[in-house]
Amino acid sequence: MYKSVIRPFLFLFDPETIHHAIFRQLKIAFKIPVLNFFLRKYFRYENKKLERNLFGLSFKNPVGLAAGFDKDAKLVDELADLGFGFIEIGTLTPKAQSGNEKPRLFRLPEDSAIINRMGFNNEGVASAVERLKRRNSRVIVGGNIGKNKITPNENATEDYDKCFEALFDVVDYFVVNVSSPNTPDLRALQDKEPLTNLLRHIQQKNSEKETPKPILLKIAPDLNKDQLDDIVEIVRTTGIAGIIATNTTISRENLQSSEYKIKEIGPGGLSGAPLKNQSTEIIKYLHKRSEGKFPIIAVGGIFSGEDALEKLNAGASLVQIYTGFIYNGPSIIKEINKKILKSSI
Length: 345
Hints:
Blueprint: H1 2-10, H2 15-29, H3 33-43, E1 52-54, E2 57-59, E3 63-65, H4 76-81, E4 86-92, E5 105-108, E6 113-116, H5 125-133, E7 140-145, H6 156-167, E8 173-177, H7 192-207, E9 215-219, H8 225-238, E10 242-245, H9 259-265, E11 269-272, H10 276-289, E12 296-299, H11 305-314, E13 318-321, H12 323-328, H13 331-343
Parallel strand pairs: 3-4, 3-13, 4-7, 7-8, 8-9, 9-10, 10-12, 12-13
Antiparallel strand pairs: 1-2, 5-6, 6-11
Helix pairs in contact: 6-7, 7-8, 8-10, 10-11, 11-13
Subcellular location: Cell membrane; Membrane
Membrane topology: Peripheral membrane protein
Organism: Splendidivirga corallicola
């Protein structure tokens, strides 16, 4: 029903406008006891065999929501009721920022893909903290953190530090995002020296806490093998908990959408089905080069249970969805979990 009726209707509207409209409707729906019961009953799928223990955390299932969907932690309880094993909020920055000029979110239905150049639009870390203090569910929440657009790279550590300190008591793990293509010069922080310095700083802050929390790094899919080797070395030397692979790509190769449409949309990060193989290959490479010594959370082109299994077989420990959630609807969570359970991975 979602693909045949609901999605065609939703896709009649501007992507960003309908995104916020759905948020409002879900808030209303889950406040109505009968609807709440129905939605939980229909979409949630639980089985002890799906539970995963990673980073010292216990995940009810290995299917998470990637960062970018619920940037400001407005829908954590409702998304948990749809069956996600974990939810990653953000990317959050110290100060609120409006992001890039609209329009900045585009669908490519021919490719089951999305292009975005949102630019870390968010209400600021303090607003998310207040919402997380009021949440009811105990779903695992990750805090994806970044820097403000106006902050120069030489001062980026201060922004990540502020977000880390603000979120520490209300999230279960952190993700350092230096891989978005939509904030000018951000990806320069992926270079070995600045990235090592940044992660060491955050790890030092983390070690000073009574109970440190897992810190992960989200990487771009556009890194070459030498850069991936650097990532493996950086994980080893800084002692961070693991990697999220991967963010959106700046590549436009092998798309079915017309060249005119792609050119008209312009720059931005591409997510969805075209990213699937690229993401999987990076996971395989990192897993092999590291000899499986650190966990990897897979994201990129997951539209089915088979896609998720491909990522897990490549070396991932958990998976996240975003574009597949938009194209296939919330039933994809149950579908993936059933497939994983059946495969006994």
